[in-house]
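Bench notes, afternoon.
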Amino acid sequence: MIHLPAAVRGPTRTRNQDRPPPRTAASNRTRVKYVVQAVLVFLLTPLTLTAQRAGLSSATIEDLNEAFDAGTLTSQRLVEMYLARIAAYDQSGPALNAVLTLNSKAIETARALDTERRERGPRSPLHGIPVVLKDNVDTADMPTTAGSLLLAGSMPPDDAFIVQKLREAGAIILAKVNMSEFASGVTMSSVGGMIRNPHDVTRTPSGSSGGTGAAIAASFAQLGIGTDTGGSVRGPSTSNGIVGLKPTHGLMSRDGIVPLALSFDMAGPMARSVFDVAAMLGVMTGIDPADEATVKSRG
């Protein structure tokens, strides 16, 4: 069993644009330790035979559920694996700047979902699966900034409708991720700074869901949510080599999402496989009285 350092399991954190302090020998040793741990987690954690061949970055929700059923993986362990990668690669190493806020209760939630799985079975294929959200999607337990210092620390009164659906399905909200400020389309924000493409940090991850695209490509979570008005799910999915879908207008609720142009706005699932995008889409649809556009999808 690979034990993660307490720093990986630390409290909710936020970032600003301040330049990080100069690296000391001790901080460099810590950075190397995190990178080694992330590589070991990536290569050695037992899943199932299928998932072992695939590796964490290629394993689908189906592979993970097989591992859960076989008892070779728990949701808590999966969350720890993703937190190790965030610790190694988001602010250290290539410094992708994809993550704005970590959910301080992610491991606690995963542990509770593991218990529920053992006692009552899974709620859905997303039971115990970590998800990251673009930071214009409301969460009652983490700030929603839309990438702007104007909204730094702003706590929504409740979850967005699609976040409620994800939690009801047993998904774990792991983090809120960086985005173009107010979905402007560039690849930086005044809250988190420049987002970098994990395939080549000199190239763009595209906007405005670049943080989600980079996070999924870097295997910071299994699933992600972006939002698309004129290509902001599709562009980052292309640039980061992942799969994304802009759903039909009205298929999913826009309630609790900072708007850009309501006649075009839609949240969309982003993942590393078509299977995962389809599984995620299936749990988020539904009629929402707070969004009249969803009436179009009735039946």
